């Protein structure tokens, strides 16, 4: 009987170790992190406050709020690639990113405060136009700050693993400020802000004082990256020719790897955003039967738990997982965790028992960290591959396109979320805030189903992504050889380098 000879499988290639020159200093990581705090804090805080203030307190129709949310997010998404291209093409003695951060931070903080400075007693339509118009100006300055900051994060290092660590630190700072934002609705009800005549709670007065404190923090934190961060690639790109936006869009459209990342991010954001606001409504109306004070009181803890899990996953879990199994598989693992979290929603939202939902939000927080961190690190790798093929550095516009797909998903989801509340029969002005059993059940099953479907679709889409660790280091080495040959970099001309 012939003997079967088993050929041993070739050993897996060893993981690369980050060289000392590719590591980013703690000082710069703190600067990038505080910048991320501003980008996430200004956006996240208004997201946390809008529905409790305009719908639950002022009785504004949720369909109008969802329309505003759609318009402002769609506008925000549309200007992302334009300002990304502007940042890539901007030239000054201080660089192409830092001056834009400095110019945007004060107007951004002022617009955040204006969101809550509406005339008391305003009609529903007056509130509608106030929120819409101020939001459009707010997001103009938010994009002018966030997109150059994204460019700084993407270009901070050439190393595959250090990119994951940098993005993880930046995301952790963002999640940290989101922990604080969960306490903002609760803070507006503190006794210190009560009406001095009646002694009754005055949440609008509290809101304005709280927003004023946030404004001061955002200005101070936003100036830190201006002083602590540096533009690592500016000496190489200062003579780069201006890149037309159309050519960048065309390059992305024909890049299968890029489109896989963007589409996966879009699907995650869309399906999550449609039901994202339901986390607040499930807590207030399903768990606490419409008791807003009790719901907000619990929400500051359960919402904080969500962001603590996301923060921890950004700093430790996903950078470690990427080193072990690579970015693609780690992102698929995040999709799997989201599916598990969605299933737990069916069992752990229990009337009168708020703390079980922490498990649900823990899974959601970890999954969201993965879907935020890993695609951003992937884009940095893809920007290197693009430079190898074209000779161009355009991190900001690539990061802006990732942001565009994220915001497009969020804006479309936001539009449907308000309509969804109407379809399931939600009524903010019902007696005592109590909703019908049918409304509560529809809310629960919708909250479960849509993100789970999105996670499954993203899981299978990611099979198309092939830029792994070995390929990323081959690209890095090829670019290093080219830069030695042409130190100033003839970055205006297409160039290809064999691996």
Summarize the structure in words.
The chain has 499 residues and is mostly helical. It has a single domain (26-230, 242-479), classed as MFS general substrate transporter like domains (Growth Hormone, Chain: A). It is built from 17 helices and no strands. The chain has helices at 26-57, 62-89, 98-114, 124-154, 160-181, 184-187, 203-228, 234-237, 245-253, 256-276, 278-287, 292-325, 327-348, 357-390, 395-423, 437-461, 469-485. The radius of gyration is 24 Å and the shape is globular.
CATH topology tier name:
Growth Hormone, Chain: A
CATH class: Mainly Alpha
Terminal Cα separation, in Å?
A: 46 Å
Look at the structure and name the CATH superfamily. Answer: MFS general substrate transporter like domains
Strands, total number: 0
Mean pLDDT: 83
| Helical segment count | 17
Measured as a percent range, the helix fraction is over 70%
Instruction: Tell me the strand percentage band.
Output: under 5%
Give the arrangement of secondary structure elements:
Blueprint: H1 26-57, H2 62-89, H3 98-114, H4 124-154, H5 160-181, H6 184-187, H7 203-228, H8 234-237, H9 245-253, H10 256-276, H11 278-287, H12 292-325, H13 327-348, H14 357-390, H15 395-423, H16 437-461, H17 469-485
Structure summary:
With 499 residues, the chain is an all-alpha fold.
What keyword list fits this structure?
single chain; 499 residues; mainly alpha; Growth Hormone, Chain: A; 17 helices; 0% strand; globular; disordered N terminus; disordered C terminus
């Amino acid at each position: 009987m012939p003997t079967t000879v088993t050929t041993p499988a070739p050993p897996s290639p060893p993981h690369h170790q980050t060289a000392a020159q590719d590591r980013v200093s703690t000082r710069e990581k703190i600067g990038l992190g505080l910048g991320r705090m501003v980008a996430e804090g200004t956006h996240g805080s208004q997201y946390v406050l809008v529905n409790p203030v305009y719908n639950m307190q002022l009785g504004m129709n949720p369909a109008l709020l969802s329309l505003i949310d759609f318009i402002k997010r769609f506008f925000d998404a549309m200007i992302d690639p334009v300002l990304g291209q502007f940042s890539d093409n901007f030239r000054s003695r201080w660089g192409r990113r830092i001056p834009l951060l400095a110019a945007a931070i004060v107007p951004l903080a002022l617009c955040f405060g204006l969101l809550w400075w509406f005339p008391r007693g305003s009609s529903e339509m007056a509130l509608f136009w106030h929120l819409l118009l101020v939001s459009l100006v707010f997001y103009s300055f938010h994009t002018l700050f966030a997109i150059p900051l994204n460019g700084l994060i993407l270009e901070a290092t050439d190393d595959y693993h250090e990119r994951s660590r940098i993005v993880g630190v930046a995301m952790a700072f963002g999640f940290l400020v989101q922990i604080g934002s969960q306490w903002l609705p609760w803070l507006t009800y503190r006794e210190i802000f009560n009406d001095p005549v009646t002694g009754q709670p005055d949440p609008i007065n509290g809101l304005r004082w709280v927003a004023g404190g946030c404004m001061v923090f955002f200005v101070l934190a936003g100036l830190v990256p201006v002083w602590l961060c540096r533009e690592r690639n500016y000496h190489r790109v200062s003579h780069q020719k201006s890149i037309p936006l159309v050519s960048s869009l065309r390059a992305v459209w024909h890049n299968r790897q890029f489109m896989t990342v963007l589409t996966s991010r879009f699907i995650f954001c869309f399906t999550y955003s449609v039901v994202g606001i339901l986390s607040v409504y499930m807590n207030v109306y399903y768990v606490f039967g419409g008791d807003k004070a009790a719901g907000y009181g619990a929400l500051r803890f359960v919402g904080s738990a969500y962001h603590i899990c996301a923060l921890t996953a950004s700093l430790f879990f996903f950078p470690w997982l990427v080193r072990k199994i690579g970015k693609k598989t780690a992102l698929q693992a995040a999709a799997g965790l989201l599916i598990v979290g969605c299933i737990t929603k069916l069992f752990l939202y229990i009337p009168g028992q708020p703390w079980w939902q922490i498990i649900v939000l823990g899974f959601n927080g970890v999954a969201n960290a993965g879907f935020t961190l890993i695609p951003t690190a992937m884009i940095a790798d893809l920007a290197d591959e693009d430079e190898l093929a074209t000779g161009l550095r355009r991190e900001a516009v690539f990061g802006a396109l990732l942001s565009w797909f994220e915001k497009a998903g969020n804006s479309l989801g936001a539009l449907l979320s308000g309509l969804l509340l109407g379809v399931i029969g939600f009524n903010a002005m019902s007696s005592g805030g109590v909703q019908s059993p049918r409304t509560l059940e529809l809310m629960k099953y919708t909250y479960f189903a849509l993100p789970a479907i999105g996670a499954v679709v993203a899981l299978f889409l990611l099979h198309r992504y092939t830029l792994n660790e070995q390929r990323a280091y081959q690209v890095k080495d090829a670019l290093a050889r080219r830069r030695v040959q042409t130190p100033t970099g003839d970055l205006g001309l297409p160039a290809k380098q064999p691996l």
